[in-house]
Amino acid sequence: MILKSHHIVFFLVLMAASFVCNSAQSQQDQIQFENISIDQGLSQSIVKCILQDKQGFIYFGTEDGLNRYDGYSFSVMRNNPEDENSLSYNDITSLYEDHFGNLWIGTFNGGLNKYNVYNKTITRFLNDPDNYNSISHNNINSIIEDNSGTVWIGTDNGLNKITIEDSARGTYSIERILNDPVNPNSLSHNIVHIVFQDQYGIIWVGTEGGLDKLILNQGSKNHTIFKHYRHNPADPNSLSNNYVRTIFEDSHGNLWVGTDLGLNTIVNRNSEEDNIKFISYKYNPNDINSISHNEIYSINEDESGILWVGTDGGGINLFDIEKNKFNRYLNNPQDKRTISYNEIRSIYKDRSGIMWIGTYGGGIGKVFRGAQQFSLFNHKPNNPNSLSHPIIWSICEDKDGILWVGTHGGGLDRIDRESNSFKHYNHNPGNLNGLSNDIVRMVYEDKEGILWIGTHGGGINKFDPKTEKFKIYKNNPADPNSLGHNEIRGIYKDKTNVLWIGTYGRGLDRFDEETETFTHYRYDPGNPSSISNDFVRVFYEDNSGVLWIGTEGGGLNKFNRETESFKRFRSDPTDSNSISNDYIFTIHEDRYGILWLGTWGGGLNKFNPKTEKFSYYTTKDGLPSDAIYGILEDKQSNLWLSTNNGLSRFNPETESFKNYNIKDGLQNTEFNGGSYFKSKSGELFFGGITGFNSFYPENIKDNKYIPPI
After folding, report:
1. What are 226-247's pLDDT values in tens digits?
2. What homologous superfamily does CATH list for 27-371?
3. Nearest-CA neighbor of 96 among 121, 115, 77, 78?
């Protein structure tokens, strides 16, 4: 938030807009990507495969070498024509780490490499047309090690089985398993895209001729047979397409098969063969909850049990199995937090729960997905089923669970999260029963369910959600009992049912709903018992019924209802027990009766009403910023603070801060004054310059995984 006297200047960065896609996906399901490209040291932007080794390094296979990433920088392995101990080729297609810690590296047209990470030696496996015991093709598509230690290689010319004969001497035997046109039990096609072993030890092979289940014949070395699963146009329960690119088993034991014509899962996998059926998921242009594209290249699962599906042109799809719904995530060139490219080649989850996405031209996408982190609501240009404006000034949840959001120029938004529907209320000069101004600075619900809406220039609006009609109260210079000023910052109805209005420049107003008149309390330089400043930002009524008023430049005020006088608490550089700053944006009373005040430049203040002494915390103590816009308390007595540099969780007992930023899923690092709310269920909301976040504090799981590197 950038503060000026009567003018607000906003620097809308490129990320102010969210990505545009043919979807009305649930706003709270949105995720943000940290994109890593050649600008950060990646050797090339096409990332075909990803692997984390036992030491914690992340490897990325590109068309120009193998990249090892330590979280900070890349080192690149490439072919050196003069060094036989270098990679055989630079175009990396597949990666696997065996139980010894060796890294197996498949290439396109360069064969297979086994890299010993300890002694830095490479063993090459290349096709020799004159040697049937060499690998069958130099195009390597897939590598796995089975439970017995045998390495299986999927190539453009069949399946290869590599068995260690003498580990000390480094000798191996290679068996080729190929399609035999006269043998119906042979491999269904020689182009093998994926080899996968499930939890039962069964090896599945994805080819360009269908899905094969390998049945190992223990009695004879060369009599391996396959059970075939192919597409049958007459059978809707058959595989959707014979071009199988990827196979994945989720945490519930479901086997997923990605083809060139949709995603498949197998039903009754462990029953009699005749009962096995496939359920397919295909793109449907008339269904926004369908998968975004039919060509499936990669599948994985995050910590929440959500399936991630990478497509060739449709970006990332997150599939909620219980809801039978796909949420689509596509690139938006105007938003750097979206996936960098829509053609996905690899998806990998590391041991800390981070999801890594390899794209075909956009480098790497990185997303941390815990059980549930910060949900994001933002503005999508040209999509009415999103926020009407990126800048959020106020958030309120009514008694029916409907969210009401005040925006900077987009009017008032109504969000029904159950139906995922948005409705926008805008100013129309020709509608006297409409919203008075599209800059909505405050939304407040009273006990009767009436919304009181404060605007920037349009006065106060009384809104009945049932009739959807607005009644407007504005300043009338000819009427001293009218609203004192049309720029509103705060609204609060106290325990005695009195409505208080904070104006931006004309002090405090008390509204009598029966007579519809306003009583004004203004700063009087000759009266020390008057309000300290006419720029009123925030109200708070404590448990004892005392009304506290925070001003912008005048510090804190304690209001005496009987005498209608104010006691001022101002910053005094000569008094270490005074408030640190006179710009008060938020006030909160904790369960112990202590008041916490967020200031604009003075950090977080702790005020004891009994002793009337202040102490404070700043960036020197761990705050991410000294500008505090909102304070909300969770069930564990932690204080959550929205600031000018992210969110912060403050533990008053340990006096420690835990800070969160854009990488954690925040709408931005910059939040806004007045834009915070706590629901009855304990859900917290904080708004800023590119939308707002919602979350349950107990679901925020810090990443405690420490890589072994």
Report:
1. 999 999 999 999 999 999 999 9
2. YVTN repeat-like/Quinoprotein amine dehydrogenase (2.130.10.10)
3. 115
